[in-house]
Amino acid sequence: MLRLGEKIVIVADAFEQSLPIGEYGYLIAYDRNPDNAFDYVIRVPEANRNFYVPAEDIEAEEHLLVAEAERATHEALIDYALSTYNEKLFHHLMNGEDMDIEETEPTSSESMSQADFIKQVNLRAWI
User: Fold this and answer.
1) How large is the C-alpha radius of gyration of the chain?
2) How far apart are CA 40 and CA 108, in angstroms?
3) What's 47's DSSP letter?
4) Residue-wise pLDDT tens digits, 46-98
5) pTM for this structure?
6) 71 CB burial (10 A radius; 0-12, 13-18, 19+)
7) Are 93 and 78 in contact, with CB atoms under 8 Å apart?
8) What are the backbone angles phi and psi of residue 58, rounded to the nearest 5°?
9) Cα–Cα distance between 17 and 14 in angstroms, integer?
10) Angle CA 120–126–127, to nearest 5
11) CA 31 to chain centroid
């Protein structure tokens, strides 16, 4: 359950009430009426309006940021596996196959240190 005052993002419009999808808003009240399909009342400053929304239409900003960071890290690891021709790491990332840790080392003649690997992953994550 979301907290009052929490910053949220509108991710859907289930009841087609012209919600500004992708906009930020703030949770200002719970709708306690059992005969109502809506769960929350949110305030969207960009639209200068309050909306009644079901729980499925909104998502906490923190959850979306974590999911985006995980997606960027996964894409950076895929780019790294492709650039180093590491087939085992690539298959593990794409299919979730089991693999040995020792086999994820780069196939090139020079071995990368852990700090260099993290630096390269972070660099690709921001590009």
Assistant:
1) 22
2) 55
3) T
4) 999 999 999 999 999 888 899 999 999 999 999 998 899 888 888 888 887 55
5) 0.59
6) exposed
7) yes
8) -125, 160
9) 8
10) 90
11) 27
